[in-house]
Design brief:
With 489 residues, the protein is an alpha/beta fold. It folds into 2 domains: 240 residues, Aldehyde Dehydrogenase, Chain A, domain 1 (3-Layer(aba) Sandwich), CATH 3.40.605; 175 residues, Aldehyde Dehydrogenase, Chain A, domain 2. Helix content is 38%, strand content 17%. It contains 14 helices and 17 strands. The longest helix has 24 residues.
């Protein structure tokens, strides 16, 4: 059993590793990420088999998720080789500067230190030991202590072992990455003074508890928590008239993907439909959905409780009845816009599993006004026709969501430069940041400016000769990596 004392020792060891690693060159740091990526590829069969025994997820899904994890590591190493995460900025001294003589001042992002990461149950690779938070923290130059999720303990432990062996093989400092388990260890990780930031993916209840605990620390630290999201879909009247059946079919495929256990699962569909139409179209598609047990017993118990409460809510009716099987049939519930206006709390109930709620609105009703009843979301989707004017609706969804989709479905979060996986609370605790894509690296760095320094004492990223060969902004103009800063003004 890992105790608070042993966690303290691991955090201290991680902090010592950080001290040795924080100033290595981008090429060295990239070699560390490549070593982990290659090791995960080499151990893919072992890791996938282990994941299957602990998660009920199929081999195809798990191999795809492992490929995503490896791809993400390599995308991040390319980012740090180019120096994009450093945001290196050089302003040479300028006696003719518009507001008076400007001193020589240069700014660069530096890593925070030890980052505590809490893995998710629903993605045993992509949001786990070497998932987005750990990958971005390591790319930033931090050390990581990862609290393994109870839903796949053995996989988490083995993933950590493989990553540490890979880091050791390329000369990375020992203890740059550690794993811990259990509640006592989790609390010690959050409380330790050497922990400089925390990343979390999980439930609203768990995330809120961590947020409140971090707020009680003597020294505040950033908390990047992904908590919960219902991911609403709005279908306009015109789109419904043109392709209502198509929308219902595609929506069914999206909300049942992965047995409804994706953080971007659409949980609400606003549509000008009726019970018979929903039962006819969705019923046929629900019957064809591949069914598997949910990820673990605790998640299943939570799903059953929330679904029962939603089913018992006044004004909510069951259109397609699920069952209590080990691998349950999906459930489709229905209510009206009028019921939602009278009881907006219905919109806050996340049914994490194979269930969804269709909300019937009447012709002429204001979708933008209905959208204002929603809390913060990771995603919001519209099914509409190009010629429609839905500016008001889009304006509301922009205010409440991190990613807005047009005639597409939110299940599927590609790892790319423009990706934003975040959103206003309670979707996340830091709506300006993303946990997916190279932009995630910035969460675990902070800017430092150096003024009037001689070249020999400057951070390497800020020296005129550009020894790290990175992209930088020189006197207001971006220069791609491979160019030096010149002599300035």
């Amino acid at each position: 059993m890992i105790t608070a004392v042993s966690v303290d020792e691991q955090i201290e060891a991680a902090d010592a590793a950080f001290a040795l690693s924080q100033n290595v060159t981008p090429r060295v740091r990239a070699s560390w990420l490549e070593a982990i990526a290659a090791a995960f590829e080499a151990h893919a069969d072992e890791l996938v088999a282990l994941a299957q025994t602990e998660t009920h997820l199929g081999e195809t899904r798990l191999r795809g998720e492992l490929r995503r994890t490896v791809f993400q590591l390599r995308l991040y190493l390319a980012e740090i080789l180019a120096g994009e995460n450093l945001d290196a900025t050089i302003d040479h001294a300028d006696p003719a500067w518009g507001m008076g003589p400007r001193p020589d001042i240069r700014r660069v992002n530096v890593p925070l230190g030890v980052v505590g990461v809490f893995g998710a149950s629903n993605f045993p690779f992509a949001f786990s030991v070497l998932g987005g938070d750990t990958a971005s923290a390591l790319a930033a130059g931090c050390a990581v202590v990862h609290k393994v999720h109870d839903g796949h303990l053995e996989l988490g432990r083995r993933s950590g072992e493989i990553a540490r062996e890979a880091l050791r093989s390329v000369g990375a400092p020992e203890n740059l990455l550690a794993t811990v388990t259990g509640r006592e260890a989790a609390e010690a990780l959050v409380d330790h003074p050497r922990t400089r930031a925390v990343g979390f993916t999980g439930s609203t209840t768990g995330g809120r508890a961590l947020l409140d605990r971090i707020a009680r620390r003597e020294r505040p630290i950033p908390f990047y928590g992904e908590l919960g999201s219902i991911n609403p879909v709005f279908a306009t009247e015109r789109a419904w008239a043109v392709r209502g059946d198509e929308i219902l079919a595609a929506y069914t495929g999206s909300f049942t993907m992965g047995m409804g256990q994706f953080c971007t699962k659409p949980g609400l569909l606003f549509a000008p439909t009726n019970r018979d139409e929903v039962a006819r179209v969705m019923g046929g598609h629900v019957a064809q959905v591949p069914r598997t047990p949910l990820l673990n017993a605790r998640l299943r118990a939570g799903f059953d409780v929330v679904l029962a409460a939603m089913t018992a809510t006044d004004g909510v009716e069951v259109v397609i009845q699920g069952d209590d099987a080990d691998a349950p049939t999906p459930t489709v519930l229905m209510t009206t816009a009028a019921v939602i206006r009278a009881n907006p709390a219905i919109l806050e109930q996340e049914m994490f599993g194979p269930a969804t709620l269709v909300i019937r609105y009447e012709p002429g009703e204001d979708l933008a006004e209905l959208a204002t009843l929603l809390d913060g979301q990771l995603t919001a989707s519209v099914q509409a026709e190009t010629e429609e004017n839905i500016a008001q609706l889009l304006s509301v969804l922009q205010d409440t969501s991190g990613r807005v989709l047009w005639n597409e479905w939110p299940t599927g979060v590609t790892v790319s430069y423009a990706q934003h996986h975040g959103g206003p609370y309670p979707a996340t605790t830091a709506e300006r940041s993303t946990s997916v894509g190279p932009g995630a690296i910035a969460r675990f760095m902070r800017p430092v400016a150096y003024q009037g320094f001689p070249p020999t004492h400057l951070h390497p990223a800020l020296r005129d000769e550009n020894p790290w060969n990175i992209s930088r902004r020189i006197d207001g103009r971006w220069q791609p990596h491979g160019q030096d800063a010149g002599s300035g003004s």
